[in-house]
Amino acid sequence: MELAELTPDSEAYLGQLGYLTLVMFENLGRAAAVSPTMSGKSRVGRVAAGTLDVHERVLAELRALKLDPAAAMEPYRSGLDDFQRRTQGDDWYETLISCYLTSGFLLDFFVRLAPGLPDKLAKRMAEILRPEGEDHPLVDELRESIDRTPQIASRLAMWGRRLIGDTMLIARSTLNLESQSDGKERVEPVFTELIAAHTRRMDGLGLTA
Amino acid sequence: MELAELTPDSEAYLGQLGYLTLVMFENLGRAAAVSPTMSGKSRVGRVAAGTLDVHERVLAELRALKLDPAAAMEPYRSGLDDFQRRTQGDDWYETLISCYLTSGFLLDFFVRLAPGLPDKLAKRMAEILRPEGEDHPLVDELRESIDRTPQIASRLAMWGRRLIGDTMLIARSTLNLESQSDGKERVEPVFTELIAAHTRRMDGLGLTA
Q: Which residues of chain B have pLDDT under 70?
């Protein structure tokens, strides 16, 4: 059972990803504004530039399909705005780790859905969503933050566990499921690898997932 | 008397512009988060992508000079953070018009300072800071916002006049002046064209400067 068997149609895929990247950009802007360090601001800026590049290219794909980007994104607005409120965090540390963990999970998720799109679009999406490298700029910033204030590690570990629940729910709402009950059985196994990757991200920061 | 006769050294020019573009990115992120329209979010995202592109290229110029970007930006942090607090605005309309007017003025200002840099850097900066076109994405959004709620026009006109004072002060602090009193006389005429451009931006929105 591959995640790509549950890929929604191109408009839904691109509309959700288009709005998600806007939400990610807003979260990164908020993180930059509260960053206690210059390196934090700059690294967050670098990630935001990459996120906005994905956003622009997703919008270009919608236009190439003769679809209006704003109209394609609109149906996913309230769900993603709600997700944003639940996951944005209360301070620099929580906001920063949310940016890293939720976008890590969700971009990975959209990468794995891409093979279910029409062939040429699938190929372009794989190119647009290059999987994150080992040297993600936010990892260094998070490690430095945790080193400076080790007492925050347990709070961030708890926050990271809470985030994964909300993130899986929003990912699940993207899938093309025949029925809710049917979906529940079919979906859980396909999240296994995504959850394992989340656990590796937490481990990499020295946090218990 | 040309503005370029008052251009600071390359490190100061690039450090200030590097931090300014980060502040602009944060303001755009905040604007996107409070945008009442999908078109607003998307247009703000497009401007932020361009701003972060300038930021990355400015940082690359600092690295090419064997300078540490964070260290080069640090001296301008508190002044620009204070400028940001004074100009960020209280709602979508004020934040949006601040993004448009303050960045319009300050990027124009850095364009006019560029010829005072060493030759090759001057040429590259002219390329990096392409002057804003007539079709700035925020202009359409602002016009639509003002059309929808015409009663905000007088508040925005007042806000726009207040912004120009803070913006000129921060621009002035960038200049390489021999003494404060000397500076005052020499500087005022060189701001004339920048102020005229500000007035044209206000006029273009139907606001009295």
A: 1, 131-134, 178-186, 209
In tens, the pLDDT along A150-193 reads 889 999 999 999 999 999 999 998 888 765 555 566 677 778 99
pTM of the model: 0.89
- Residue A179 C-alpha, separation from nearest chain B C-alpha, in angstroms: 30
- Tell me what the mean pLDDT of segment A54-61 comes to: 96
Q: Number of A:B CB contacts under 8 A?
A: 78
Number of helices and strands (H, E) in chain A? 10, 0
Among the listed residues A106, A76, A88, the one whose alpha carbon sits nearest the alpha carbon of residue A191: A106
pLDDT at B171: 93
Tell me the average pLDDT across A41-58: 93
And the tokens for B171?
């621009």
Nearest to B38 by CA among B136, B144, B133, B132: B144
Would you call A52 and B56 a contact, using CB atoms and an 8 Å cutoff?
Answer: no
Sign of CA dihedral A5, A6, A10, A13: negative
Least confidently predicted of A12-21, A50-59, A135-144 = A135-144
Instruction: Find, in chain A, the residue whose alpha carbon is nearest to that of B57.
Output: A46
Higher pLDDT among residues A3 and B84, named by residue: B84
Distance from CA of B46 to the nearest CA of A (A): 7
Contact criterion met (CB < 8 Å) for A74 and B42: no
Average pLDDT of the residues of chain A: 90
CB contact under 8 A, A48 and B25: yes
Backbone angles phi, psi at B24, to 5 degrees: -65, -40
Say how far apart CA B33 and CA B36 lie, in whole Å.
9
Say how far apart CA A186 and CA A6 lie, in whole Å.
9
C-alpha closest to that of B45 among A118, A49, A99, A17: A49
Task: Locate the chain B residue with the closest alpha carbon to A59.
Answer: B42
Query: What's the gap between Cα A93 and its chain centre?
Result: 17
- Which pLDDT score, from 0 to 100, does residue B81 have? 95
DSSP type of residue B7:
-
Decide: B50 and A48 in contact? Cβ < 8 Å.
no
Q: Are B117 and B196 within 8 A, CB to CB?
A: no
CA distance B26 to B141: 19
Find the closest chain B residue to A51 by CA distance: B49
CA angle B190, B196, B202 (to 5 degrees): 145
